[in-house]
Amino acid sequence: IERGVSEEKLARALNVDIKRIKTKRSLLDGVCPEVAEMLKDKSVDTEVFAVLRKMKPMRQIEAVELMVAMNNFTARYAQALLAATRREDLARPGRPKNIRGLTAEQIARMEREMEGLEREFKAVAAGYGDTVLNLVVASSYVSQLIGNPRVIRYLERHHREILTEFQAIVAVTSLEESVSTRSEEQAFLG
Questions:
Q1: Which has fewest Cβ within 10 Å: 67, 79, 142, 154?
Q2: DSSP 19-36
Q3: In angstroms, rounded to a whole number, what is the distance separating the alpha carbons of residues 81 and 99?
């Protein structure tokens, strides 16, 4: 299209409906570039973009971050995020939000609840890195402990259930590390 090929000719050549080409051409109109970048390798329902256009750019980014975190790119989820969006974060704040089946009071309650959930989500996400680091350090220590034959003999005689749990912790951590390593190798080679 950018090189001068008409939409009709392109539709015939690709054997698709011309409406589909027109829809795809304008799919990202009104969607901020950061959102387009975040969604470029995701399978996203095309209706999601129409919903995102109803939000200001910063809210689009927040909504897509939640979609990515939840791995949910459906129009229904986007509609729920729109319903929970404060009026001042809408592209047209003067327009009332019309969401089928919801009263203005229900929408206002959803907005308040969504703000609380977003704060909680961000707090959990912020602490996630520290938690994972602590887990890795603890797991490494437990691995060293059960690598010592004297410790294993003692635990086998006096605390078999603790030994079993320690072995499970080390096994899970080893499995996660091997999966992570394989993923990194595939990304490097792929």
A1: 154
A2: HHHHHHHTTTTTS-HHHH
A3: 11
In 3-state terms, the chain is what percent helix, strand and coil (to 5)?
75, 0, 25
Model confidence pTM above 0.85: no
- C-alpha span between 72 and 39 (Å, rounded): 11
List phi, psi (to 5°) of 45: -60, 130
Q: In whole angstroms, what is the distance from residue 167 CA to residue 143 CA?
A: 8
* Residue 126 to residue 133: CA distance in whole angstroms: 13
Do the Cβ atoms of 63 and 78 come closer than 8 Å?
yes
Q: In this structure, what token pair is assigned to residue 6? A: 């008409």
**DSSP letter, residue 97:** P
Residue ranges of the domains in the chain? 1-30, 31-100, 128-190
Distance separating alpha carbons of residues 85 and 108, to the nearest angstrom: 9
Q: What is the 3-state secondary structure (H, E, C) of 37-63?
A: HHHCCCCCCCHHHHHHCCECHHHHHHH
CA distance 54 to 45: 16
| Residue 43 backbone dihedrals phi, psi, to 5 degrees | -90, 100
Q: Are 113 and 121 a contacting pair, CB within 8 Å?
A: no
pLDDT in tens, 132-180: 888 888 888 999 999 999 999 999 999 999 999 999 988 887 656 555 5
